[in-house]
Design a protein that fits this description.
Blueprint: E1 12-15, H1 16-30, E2 36-38, E3 45-48, H2 50-66, E4 73-80, E5 83-90, H3 113-117, H4 124-134, E6 139-144, E7 148-156
Parallel strand pairs: 2-4
Antiparallel strand pairs: 1-3, 4-5, 5-7, 6-7
Helix pairs in contact: 1-2, 2-4
The structure holds adenosine-5'-triphosphate and magnesium ion (MG).
């Protein structure tokens, strides 16, 4: 359905910071051995499909857990020029430069030990990118192997 451009978005104005807090709590409850730290979470309204944006946050958080092996996960939000940026950082296995674009492709998974340990289809980031782009936002990654990974996504701030 995604490929055929059939994914339907139900957009409404809502407070992003509440969704972020709710989603972190939900993921934290499923995996209590990982500590998630929400640094800065300013109130910000966005015009978006709340469920789909929640899906993006969930995927980035569960990725951080899957590929980090017992580390802390830092979440942060900054607002600049009518745009909010949310970052999700882990100090896990990292992603090499040549793989950093590929991970957003359909079914792409980095080969390595983790692939055998953690299940997944390689769809999470592909779907996340589609959702964010359809909301006029950007999603990108900064990472260094063995040091860690930060995923960012941006969305326009809703002006009333
Ligand atoms: P799915 O999300 O469909 O269950 P998945 O998590 O493997 O499966 P994606 O979320 O699309 O798929 O991620 C693609 C690949 O990118 C992962 O398989 C992994 O190799 C790499 N990756 C994603 N997030 C991280 C991260 N935080 N640290 C290291 N590698 C990551
Ligand atoms: Mg995933």
């Amino acid at each position: 359905r995604l490929r055929e451009g059939e994914l339907i978005y139900n957009r409404h104005p809502f407070q992003f910071e509440i969704l972020l807090e709710e989603t972190i709590d939900e993921v934290q409850r499923m995996s209590s051995s990982y500590k998630m730290v929400l640094k800065n979470n300013p109130p910000v309204k966005i015009f978006a499909d709340r469920e789909r944006i929640g899906q993006v946050i969930t995927n980035l958080l569960t990725n951080a857990i899957k590929y980090c092996m017992g580390c802390d996960i830092l979440i942060n939000v900054e607002i600049k020029h009518n745009e909010m940026a949310c970052s999700i950082h882990d100090n896990g296995v990292g992603i090499s430069k040549d793989q950093q674009d590929k991970i957003f492709e359909r079914f792409y998974r980095v080969s390595g030990v983790n692939l055998h340990t953690y299940p997944g289809l390689g769809l999470g980031l592909y779907i996340s990118k589609e959702i964010i782009q359809r909301h006029k936002g950007k999603i990108y990654v900064e990472s260094e192997p063995k040091k860690g990974t930060t995923f960012y996504f941006t969305l326009p701030v809703y002006e009333e």
